[in-house]
Structure formats: C-alpha cells, structure tokens
Design brief:
three-stranded antiparallel sheet; 11 helices; Arc Repressor Mutant, subunit A; mainly alpha; 2 domains
Length: 215
C-alpha cells in the first residue's frame, strides 16, 4: 500500500471518528452535546439539533388548538341541541338523528327525552308476532341507550323487562330468538347486546314508521 492510499479521505475520516469518539466517550451526555455543538459552529456545520425535531407547520398548530378547546365546541353543540330539541341526548346520537332526518318532537313519543337516562316509553311496539315484537323492542331499547350514553348496548335484564311489558316475551324461545337476531344484535347474555350496522338501519326505519303519522 502506497502513501497516497494510506492517507486517502476515507482513511482520514475513520481516524478522525476514532479520535472524536475517544474524546467524547469520557464525557456525560450534556458535555458531549456541548462539544459537538461548539465544533459544529467553529467548522460552520449544520447544528445536529436541526435534524432531531421535525419542523411544524401552521396546520399542525391549528389542529392542536382545536383539540385543546373542546369546551368551546361543546358549548356550540349544546346551543344547537337546545334549538333542535335534542338537549340531553349524547352528541353522537344527535348527529345520527340529524343525519337520519328524525324529528325530536316526534321522538319524544317513543323515548323519554329530557331525562338523565333515556328509555323506551312508546305506548306499543309494532310486530305481528311475539318474535317480531321482541326484535323491535331490542332495536328500540338499543337506540334508547344510544340516545342516553352514545352506546347502543342493552343487558339481558333490561331486554327481558321491556319484552314482558310490550307482550314480546316468549319464555320457551327467548334465547333461540336472540341467536336468530345475530345480524341485528351482537353479543351474549353475559356481556349484553349491541346493535350492529344492520340493527341501526332497521331501528331507524322502525322509528320512522312509528313517528311518520304524527302531526
């Protein structure tokens, strides 16, 4: 190996790295940073810190401001809800009501709006058979829970009680019917039952049917 090869730029870089490493490894992290910053300034190099943190743009900062001010947004939503007669209903359910074209005044004949825990209060539930009424009761109870807390979930005791009230309880076939309702209700008797996407669609149609004749 000749002298030029021994002193090639790559060899010199390797040696420089070794010297710098040996000098820095005996310092703590703060000392290492101060030395590298100082050397970078002397040699007019880009500061290492410039690549450690990505630049933030105006859109990112505006997004954070929106996220940090939920109270102001909630105030606006509450004001709109009061005007629409939806005050006391969960925000997510309010959106569903508006999107579905349902009327709060008419909904009050089916659900106990305006109370802390919204429930099914319709005088009767449609259905030509006990099985059909049982499904409709389950759908409506799920929506009542959705209106109240934003989750369309009902437990077994609630469902049994409502079915009994609306002449929709078939003791011998109750659990069989629940299994048959799997497309509309997901879950089990231990965890409770939640409306599926199809359940929401069917519940919306049912509610419109129950309220469309009201003036």
């Amino acid at each position: 190996m000749n002298k030029n090869e021994k002193n090639s730029p790559s060899d010199m870089q390797v040696k420089a790295i070794g010297v710098v490493y040996d000098a820095l490894r005996q310092l703590d992290a703060d000392g290492q940073q101060r030395v590298t910053d100082c050397v970078s300034k002397i040699l007019n190099l880009a500061a290492p810190a410039a690549v450690s943190a990505p630049k933030r743009n105006i859109q990112d900062e505006e997004a954070e401001i929106v996220e940090e001010k939920p109270a102001r947004q909630n105030d606006t939503d509450s004001h709109g809800a009061a005007e629409d007669g939806l005050e006391g209903i969960s925000p997510i359910a309010q959106k569903w009501i508006r999107r579905s074209g349902l009327d709060a005044a008419k909904l009050s004949s089916v659900f106990s709006l305006g109370v802390d825990e919204i429930d099914l209060v319709a005088k009767s539930v449609p259905g030509k058979s006990v099985r059909a009424r049982m499904l409709n009761v389950a759908l409506l109870k799920g929506i009542a829970s959705y209106l109240s807390g934003g989750v369309a979930r009902i437990n077994l005791a609630q469902l049994k009680g409502a079915c009994t009230h609306y002449d929709a309880f078939d003791e011998n076939n109750f659990y069989k019917h629940l299994k048959d309702f799997a497309p509309e209700l997901s879950g089990n008797k231990e965890t409770g039952y939640t409306l599926t996407a199809r359940g929401f669609t069917d519940a919306t149609s049912l509610i419109k049917q129950m309220t469309e004749k009201q003036k």
